[in-house]
Design brief:
463 residues, 2 domains, nine-stranded mixed beta sheet, eight-stranded parallel beta barrel, binds pyridoxal-5'-phosphate
Length: 463
């Protein structure tokens, strides 16, 4: 065991400061399949590999930091979601989690539909050949131009988010001489995050039309009166990183309650119900997400039961997983730079990226794990905090994690489960260049989003 690298650093599990972490894992070299992409393992030399490529070669060829995405895993997860519901539901991948043209093509090939929430996402989807009728357009403040483009292209559905938007979309559809398929997004008074959900107060937010006070019923009334709108259903999205199905249970109960009121008032049975996304993934070994088939079974049972009780025909279900498909399929590969042991506290390990490629830790206090991937090590575990290179003390990628105490500058570390909401939320803070996304598959690596260059930055700055 080498102790010479950081003589002042805390290394022992018995002198750990307070923090949010469990004891060090028994073997730091093990890459827990729960948090790493499906094809990740270590080769005979101890170097991590993914899709048949080792991370040292990837780093040499493409540089660091880089998002490395396991294409086989992405396709497998997309297929699992699609297969879980059989033909009984539509799966819309939430493009905001991560969208690129390669991803759009994979989704198209695997039979999934796509959610977009801006003109830019719509343009990306269309440019990669996703049929417009398989696209749903979301958002609480779609511009007139965005709505016109979406209707003109023939998107399959627009999810209406306010009373003003009902009128706006109806007007534009009439202008364009079409009848637009729409859903109404409602807030059911349930908010779910991770293991908890809260029923009641959560209508206090910018999305959707509250069920409370009869507002959602009024929205349905107005939409049904407008000839240029075809109201196909009700939409509800209750949160993110959810493990517990009870929030969906309450949401489905309330959405079906509205469908029943609509039937009683208008004699119309709306044919669809969208339960949104938000299904959780494992960021650390402590997380235990459910499999798509379990989720599909639970959701289908809930909706069927509620509809039977309300004597309604069971509507067609749609779901919108984003994170649950792309999140686990990628990791961020970094090179270790400076290492700073703080006596009695922890060791700060700086990497060559940071909050510009992963804002989730700073923004949501998200938890991640990290591993040394360019080699194995038998050195004692040290409590580390993985930080970036930005001018901000909150520039933290992994708050608390164990790494081998012989970690040295030039080592490669990787943070798993960064496929969702990392590249898509990446910024140019400090004029740091956004990393590429490298897709690996069957021993081949391919750039699907290239690394930003200084030229890219300067091109926007017109002087
Ligand atoms: C963000 C979002 C999703 C996807 O959420 P995930 O947590 O990535 O599954 C689905 N539907 C809507 C309306 C959203 O806003």
């Amino acid at each position: 065991m080498s102790r010479s690298a950081h003589p002042a650093g805390p290394r022992h599990a018995d002198v750990l400061p307070e923090g949010h972490y469990s004891a060090p894992p028994a073997d730091l070299n093990v890459l827990d399949p729960k948090v790493w992409a499906q094809t990740v393992s270590r080769d005979a030399d101890g170097v991590a590999t993914v899709g048949g490529m080792d991370v040292k070669s990837i780093a040499e060829q493409y540089g660091t930091p880089a998002y490395v995405l396991d294409e086989a895993d992405f396709r497998a997860r997309a297929r699992a979601w699609r297969g879980a519901f059989g033909g009984d539901a539509d799966v819309f991948y939430a493009g905001k989690a991560f969208l690129s043209r390669a991803v759009v093509r994979w989704l198209h090939e695997e039979g999934l539909n796509l959610d977009v929430c801006s003109g830019g996402e719509l343009a990306t989807a269309l440019s990669a050949g996703m049929p417009a009728e398989r696209i749903a357009f979301h958002g609480n403040n779609k511009s007139v131009e965005e709505i016109r483009r979406a209707i003109g292209e023939g998107v399959g559905r627009i999810v209406l988010d306010s009373f003003q938007e009902i009128v706006r979309v109806a007007h534009i559809a009439r202008e364009l001489g079409t009848r637009q398929r729409v859903q109404i997004r409602i807030t059911v008074g349930v908010e779910a995050h991770t293991h908890e959900f809260i029923a009641t107060a959560h209508e206090d937010q910018k999305f959707g039309i509250p069920l409370a006070g009869g507002q959602a019923a009024e929205a349905v009334r107005r939409a049904l009166q407008l000839d240029s709108l075809e109201l196909i259903g009700i939409h509800s999205h209750i949160g993110s990183q959810i493990f517990d199905m009870s929030g969906f249970e309450v949401a489905a109960h309330r959405v079906v309650g509205l469908l029943k009121d609509v039937r009683d008032e208008h004699g119309v049975e709306l044919p669809e119900i969208d339960l949104g996304g938000g299904l959780g993934i494992a960021y650390t070994s402590d997380d235990d997400p459910r499999e798509p088939h379990e989720i599909a079974k639970a959701l289908t049972e809930i909706v069927t039961r509620e509809c039977e009780a309300a004597k309604l025909r069971t509507p067609r279900i749609s779901v919108e997983p984003g994170r649950a498909i792309v999140g686990p399929t990628a990791f961020t590969l970094y090179e270790v730079g400076t290492i700073k042991p703080l006596d009695g506290l922890r060791t700060y390990v700086s990497v060559d990226g940071g909050m510009s490629d992963n804002i989730r830790t700073a923004l949501y206090d998200a938890e991640y794990s990290v591993a040394l991937v360019s080699r194995t090590s038998d050195a004692e575990p040290m409590l580390a905090r993985i930080v970036g290179k930005h001018c901000e003390s909150g520039d933290i990628v992994v708050k608390d994690a164990f790494l081998p105490s012989d970690l040295a500058p030039g080592d490669l570390v990787a943070v798993p489960a960064t496929g969702a909401y990392c590249r898509s939320m990446a910024s140019n803070y400090n004029h740091v260049l956004r990393p590429p996304v490298i897709a690996v598959h069957d021993g081949e690596a391919r750039v699907i989003v290239r690394r930003e260059t200084e030229e890219d930055l300067l091109r926007l700055d017109v002087g």
